[in-house]
Predict the 3D structure of the following.
Amino acid sequence: MKKLSVFIAILFLIACEPEINVIINKEPGRITGIVVPTDETAIVELYQGSLIAQTPTDADGFFEFEKVSPGTYRLVAKADHYGSVEVSNIRVSDSEGYDVGIIELSLFPNPLIDTYPYSGARDISASSAYIRLYFTEYMLPKAVEEAFSITPELDNINFTYPSYSSGSSRYSYSVRGDFKPGTEYTYTIDTTAVTAYGKKLEFSYTSSFTMEEFKVLSINWYGKSNPKLVIAFNSDVPVDNFDKISINPPTATYLDNDNSSSRGTNSITYFRIYPAISWMTDTTYTVFISSEITESGGTALGRDSTFTFVTDPIEITYTYPRNDQYFIGLLPDIQVRFNNIIDESTIADALSVVPKAVYEIWTYYRDGYSYFYLNVTDALQGKTEYMVELSTDLKDYYGKHLKAPYSFRFTTQ
């Protein structure tokens, strides 16, 4: 009974206590950072939905917002002659600071974020001669085209529709045309370029780049694999300039007109030169390209170019049967292939087959090399080893002898 009385008394005392209200005050924090470059005083704006504060940077690019209530904010930093940069999801906690670090202002007017070539680029090759503009937002193609200008004027200028890269979250617009070698181009895209929602560039953007000089890109002789000589220029070169290329010792050649010029992004001209018959064997050739060659715009090469290549001596590149091959039929077509054209009149005297065989000599040539066939007319002896020999009396089309005797053998079935 005594315990119950004490419990009732405690309840009575609690009921008589005055009401207590607990109030928790959240202390403000601050936001700091640095904006570079520091050659211009930047203005940093603080947003929470709408603009709530702004502050300039000091001489070192430092800025600070004090007494910022806990919450989520975003910053926009901007300066004259630079594009604005936004920093989102800035979370300020109770009585804590938030340092956004270094904010680097863009050289491009928002929403333009990058270009190709970079401003001041030199020696842009013909294969990569185009202008590409990258935006963070979709720009109206017609507005981009109307906002774009270039000096000197670009022949056959055309604008491609924008492509979107999900990996980099940007839209790219390309400008192509006939860029001339050795020329400096300056282009501007002004503030009439707008997004689908009417947002304009922050300011006009101007950039310059210089094309590489007109030059010979490469000279290649393909030797055994292909008899052609290929000269590549970094611009469109008219075919009538072919007479400004000479080859010594003089050899009858022709230009493959169907494939003399190959156009990709811009014109790169390939002169594919073939010998009318074949290149001379065991010979050092010199190719001379005159400085007077001009590209289609009239720019001359400006300096002579030379290239040398050495051809192989006459040699056997293939036989049938192969050397030491077995189980050959008794009426085979024995074949010998050379790396060049041979003098047919020298085959019979240079050739011998042991044991003797009865055969006819047939010859055939294509693409600068020769075959001859021994068409066996009487059956060979069975289970017999035959030796085919060619002496140095064999000559090629240009009168040069086989360097050393050659032989191969085979065994019949």
The chain has four domains: 29-104, 112-211, 216-310, 316-412. The chain has a mean pLDDT of 89. The first strand starts at residue 29 and ends at 36. The radius of gyration is 41 Å.
